[in-house]
Known about the structure:
12 strands; 2 domains; five-stranded mixed sheet; 14 helices; alpha/beta
Amino acid sequence: MNAHVDIDKDRFESIGTIAGRLVKSFRTERVWDGKPITEPGIYSGISLDDYHGNRDLLDGPSISKSMLKWLVPAHGGSPKAFWGRWKWNPDHITPETTKALDFGKAAHCLLLGDEIFEEQFVVRPDTYPDEKTGNFKPWHPSSNVCKGWLEANTKGRTVISRDDLKMIERMRADAAQHPLVQGGILNGRIERSMFWKDPKTGIWLKARPDAIPRADGVFADLKTAASFDEDFLERQIFDACYYLQAAITRMVCLGIELPFDTFALLYVLKDDVPDTTHAEVSVHEIDRGEHVVRWSLDKIRECLDSGEWPGARPFNDGTRHIQMKEWQKSRVDRFLEQEAA
């Protein structure tokens, strides 16, 4: 007996329709000419430094997922915290980089080949000669010799250690053996940036996938992880704003008519014995992220128009009393009960 299957004809797309959208997306790809971008689409020739730091890359204000954590109250942010760090603010602060960020950037570069490693990174020595004795000592950034080496050799490049480089090379070798990597999940157009201007607010959304797929709507992003514990990875979806990254990618794809089916995270374990796995971001989390992005766009527009960027207002700006957590109350109450017995 044949089972009955309902087909939603309103959502059905022929191969020809999908192919047409793919052809259109390739046709709208442009090479950046160095001038402010005014048209949505896919662009090549934009460095990571320009993508993240060039205020005049686009002809108006823009956001990507990395900034939204400073705005959204659920992430501990506020309009004030956001404005103080936003590149559109001419008086913004520039946050210091961290070793974890530098490691992640180097891993991306070596695993994806999206930039020439030697142009972006320099590997520092493990030791340096003592100024007085000439004996070699472990590298120390406060040493005058080490400071001199950095000044002479960095030239704007990010410094990583030999141990980090060795670990990244082991991670790259492990990732290369993963079936999805061998199947081409990271193949596609690399070093591409995607832009779409929200018509309601006039604010640009930016996305820079690790690889824009050539033949389907499966977007994958490479992530390094300190643990493959499921609780840890699920926390990272929120803490690192991956759900916002997936949502912005989907919104930009919709805006420029590029197919989007799913957003997969390809995890490579940062460990002496590396490992590689993957997980798709739930569509429900992408939906949730899109609601957050929509709120963010509206809030930024509101603040731009008013010129006011309010700070955090915990406990309803002080009108709601602050209390201990329930488990803390229980701990204190148990102590008092024991003492009273």
